[in-house]
Recover the amino acids of this structure.
């Protein structure tokens, strides 16, 4: 069992397999050219699997594969099958922008993937192109349908940005409601890599917009392991809102993150990290597990943000850690 210094049990491992992405979303990626980590610097699937299997032995019950955009790394379905074959009741999930899903969804499902989180910020092609810096919506919608057809459980993530997609909140909610997908709206997380001037909506602003159509939704008692607060419409459909600046979900945080280069990150908003790369590459798995326990021992009690002009800002590159 993996316990941190505050007595929190950790059974959820998020694994980034690449920092590369085929989108340049305004709230995440820099527009200017920058250097990708060379492929030879990344942990191989075999080395990632060594650590994941050892973590499962220590009590990890859920593994989420993230990026960047994880489908950009070749052989992802084979990697997922390695984890599934090791323990087939593990909760295996993937976060993706869905652009490459049309040809991948069934292979991922066949490999053992169970659930998928997909970013969908708009249903308007011109707005999607503005956010992602390329024409993507038609292919993303095909990817969502392919995941549905394959029988994957689907959650949709949406980041409302003022002046861009903020008036589509109800439209995106209805799209998900009609199809039985869970939708989670995420407050924009200020970070040094976002486009200058990008401003998100607060939870209260989102709820006010939703209330214009759905007047009597109610708050659902919180599942403390989830970062989302859920609300229920009169017909029983539930939607979530994630408020990263609040720390009410930190007391039950159960997750740890591993980057594609082998750094263990105890908290998305905490800069300290330790590397397991050398240990796993040299088959010193016990040492890697000890590093994991040391990282958990130093995990902060709650979010730690930097402050810039009075605003809480993260210096973390979310495309390196999967958000």
């Amino acid at each position: 069992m993996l316990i941190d210094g505050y007595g929190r049990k950790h059974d959820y491992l998020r694994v980034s397999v690449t920092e590369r992405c085929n989108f340049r979303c305004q709230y995440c990626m820099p527009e200017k050219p920058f250097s990708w980590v060379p492929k030879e610097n990344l942990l191989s699937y075999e080395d990632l699997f060594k650590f994941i299997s050892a973590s499962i032995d220590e009590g990890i019950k859920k593994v989420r594969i993230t990026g960047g955009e994880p489908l950009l790394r070749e052989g992802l379905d084979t990697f997922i099958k390695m984890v599934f074959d090791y323990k087939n009741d593990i909760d295996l999930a993937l976060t993706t922008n869905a652009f490459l899903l049309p040809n991948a969804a069934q292979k991922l499902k066949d490999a053992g993937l169970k659930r998928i989180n997909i970013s969908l910020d708009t249903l308007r092609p011109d707005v999607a192109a503005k956010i992602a810096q390329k024409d993507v919506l038609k292919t993303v919608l095909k990817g969502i349908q392919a995941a549905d057809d394959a029988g994957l459980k689907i959650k949709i993530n949406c980041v409302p940005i003022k002046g861009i997609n903020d008036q589509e909140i109800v439209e995106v909610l209805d799209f998900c409601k009609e199809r039985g997908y869970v939708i989670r709206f995420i407050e924009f997380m200020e970070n040094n890599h976002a486009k200058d001037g990008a401003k998100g909506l607060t939870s209260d602003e989102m709820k006010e917009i939703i209330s214009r159509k759905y007047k009597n939704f109610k708050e659902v008692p919180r599942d403390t392991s989830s970062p989302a607060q859920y609300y229920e419409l009169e017909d029983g459909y539930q939607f979530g809102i994630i408020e990263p600046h609040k720390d009410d979900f930190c007391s039950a945080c159960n997750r740890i993150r591993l980057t594609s280069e082998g750094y263990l990150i105890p908290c998305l908003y905490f800069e300290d990290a330790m590397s397991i790369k050398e240990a796993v590459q040299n088959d010193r798995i016990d040492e890697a597990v000890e590093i994991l326990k040391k990282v958990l021992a130093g995990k902060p009690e709650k979010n730690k943000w930097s402050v810039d002009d009075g605003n809480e800002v993260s210096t973390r590159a979310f495309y390196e850690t999967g958000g």
Summary: The mean pLDDT is 89. The chain has one domain: 12-320. The radius of gyration is 19 Å. The domain at 12-320 is CATH 3.20.20.70 (TIM Barrel).
